[in-house]
């Protein structure tokens, strides 16, 4: 589940990471106004690039504030209109840096990624320019912090930098995050670090140990786990074991799975339709693998459900369907009547995906 900026920053504040002072969190019907200026008025959409799109405005008086507020509520950014606007005290900035934490699954460790030029142009940097540090034994080592302080051209701030990195790391681990990005990390005139913007993605699968989680984006049910919002291959399977094996096979084929989804012991039209709806939120998905083993459930029933579900969408990503077991020959016939192929194994599906 992806948090909005104000939600991410409240989480950071709880872990003692310095963030700008929150002045207001506005809904469209809210009447409050800031009592002091300048403030920054920020569209709370779950997308980056708000600055460039006009969704972030620094305002100096209440007229500018009213205009900014109206413009931002009216403006759609990357397909999202904000329900919420964050108003913060403006920060006096000397420098904008970039820090993020991700899970590097190849080395099974959390990785810190940094760049000396943060801010709205960060995507224009070549990926080789980013510094990467694998975090081992519960913290980042001092040598890495010293090196990073040099890269940032603030060797005298190594100690303070080490502190904020440790606090961010703790936020990441204790919140069961899969991504935490600070862009920009402000360096202020009086030599402080402040998280200017923050994106956090939490692991839906960890919901059971965070009864306090309450965010605008609702966590999915336990059977659906977001793996990568930019993944290209969505997966649907029955049974947790088969669902995990499907995700693993996609990774092994060198592709990025968007999700884990276990639709359980039966596969009805309603379930398949719901699954497609969830998957269609991920804009990069170009293929859906449906991997069902017909034990109690009959493959031709599943095939019918897939065919019926497909009719409810004007366009779907490519479907790679593997049904095996009970009544799979009947399923193959039904699917072929709808121009769909039935694959005998997951490997056959993956061959179609060879990058
Ligand atoms: P994004 O474009 O969606 O990533 O939104 P950000 O929250 O990162 O804001 C974009 C840019 O606005 C930042 O890189 C800063 O340059 C600028 N900005 C945001 N808040 C402040 C602030 O309090 N003070 C100053 N000086 N600039 C700010
Ligand atoms: Mn940003």
Task: Detail the topology: elements first, then pairings.
Blueprint: H1 5-14, E1 22-26, E2 39-43, H2 50-53, E3 56-59, H3 62-74, E4 85-89, E5 93-104, E6 109-115, E7 131-135, H4 142-151, H5 158-174, E8 177-188, E9 193-195, E10 198-202, E11 224-226, E12 233-237, H6 240-252, E13 259-261, H7 269-280, E14 287-294, H8 299-311, E15 318-325, H9 328-337, E16 342-343, H10 346-353
Parallel strand pairs: 12-14, 14-15, 15-16
Antiparallel strand pairs: 1-4, 2-3, 2-4, 5-6, 5-8, 6-7, 8-9, 8-10, 11-13
Helix pairs in contact: 4-5, 7-8, 8-9
Manganese (II) ion (MN) binds next to loops.
Uncertain segments are none
- Strand fraction: 25-35%
Helix content: 25-40%
Overall residue-averaged pLDDT value: 94
Per DSSP, the total helix count is: 10
How big is the Rg?
A: 23 Å
In N-to-C order, the SSE pattern is HEEHEHEEEEHHEEEEEHEHEHEHEH
* First-to-last CA distance: 28 Å
Helix and strand composition category:
alpha+beta
Instruction: Give a short account of the largest sheet.
Output: 6 strands, antiparallel
Number of strands: 16
Ligand species: guanosine-5'-diphosphate, manganese (II) ion
- The gross shape turns out to be globular
